[in-house]
Amino acid sequence: MSISWTGVMPAVTTKFTDKDELDLDMFSINIKAQIDAGVSGIILGGTLGEASTLTYEEKRVLMKETVKLVEGKIPVIINIAEQTTKGAIHAAEVAKECGATGLMMLPPMRYKANDHETVTYFKETANSTDLPIMIYNNPIDYGIMVTLDMLDELMVCENIQAVKESTRDISNITRIKTRFGDRLNVLTGVDTLGLESTLMGADGWVAGLVCAFPAETCAVFELARAGRIKEALEIYRWFLPLLELDISPQLVQNIKMAEVATDIGTENVRAPRLPLIGKERDKVAAIIKQGIATRPTLPDYKNLT
């Protein structure tokens, strides 16, 4: 199997009903909006997807439903965030059974593995499956840095094909590209570095606010890739206050509020998360309101040459 690890890939939110059950109707509305905007893949089960609160059966349902919705047009990628190697291998097996076309992998959860343990964890999982894999490198949130030397060791696994780069060090994109060339695709995982990362050679953008603003996110990326920097920058400057909602412990609540404002989501989260209240809610609501009021008219970004 292969995936073109390029373009905008939303880390989609999981939709819940008022009864705390999966809301597949609203989930379908959001996925269709993503596809219509021109995203290159759907990523399930990340932080935004509230994966740590989902049951195994709910994850199965979401994978199967997404595979059905995309109709083979774009890949469906499931995040693996497990505590054990055995658990990661099992998650990869289930992903394939459910029709997923790729995996995004975090280092082991909870236990802070050393470099050798982390590399072995990735290798053993990769060797257990033929699904393409993107390594998620986010030492700020998850405590383990996947270094270039570690990536070098992982190159023996042909199905490890990409890196989600979330170190916040934008020069790391250049380091990876210089070291590995076309062997590894690099996708930025930080919304507030989306345009900058694209201009530095990132192949794609694993995005958060795309959940509420899919067309605007795709437009920034496609315009930048086409060299129409001025137009991309104009949209990006409008977008930045909204994108900053992604770099917060309450990013799920923030982005779900934005999804409600654009009519492609609900605000329901799963406890212990709760909807925002008080001054925090007022602040986020004001940012979203301003963004909606000044939402730019987009050029025909789907047909750029």
UniProtKB/TrEMBL annotation:
The record's Gene Ontology biological-process terms are: N-acetylneuraminate catabolic process
Any single GO CC term annotated in Swiss-Prot or TrEMBL for this entry: cytosol
Kindly give the SMART domains that the UniProt entry links to this protein: DHDPS
Per UniProt, pyruvate binds at V206
Q: Which SUPFAM superfamilies match?
A: Aldolase
Q: Which CDD domains does the UniProt entry name for this protein?
A: DHDPS-like
According to the UniProt entry, its GO molecular function terms are: N-acetylneuraminate lyase activity
What residues make up the catalytic site? Y136, K164
Alphabetically sorted, this entry's keywords are: Lyase
Which domain of life, per UniProt?
Answer: Bacteria
Q: Does the keyword Lyase apply?
A: yes
Q: What protein name does the entry list?
A: 4-hydroxy-tetrahydrodipicolinate synthase
Organism classification: Bacteria, Pseudomonadati, Bacteroidota, Flavobacteriia, Flavobacteriales
Keyword Lyase among UniProt keywords: yes
Q: Which family does it belong to?
A: Belongs to the DapA family.
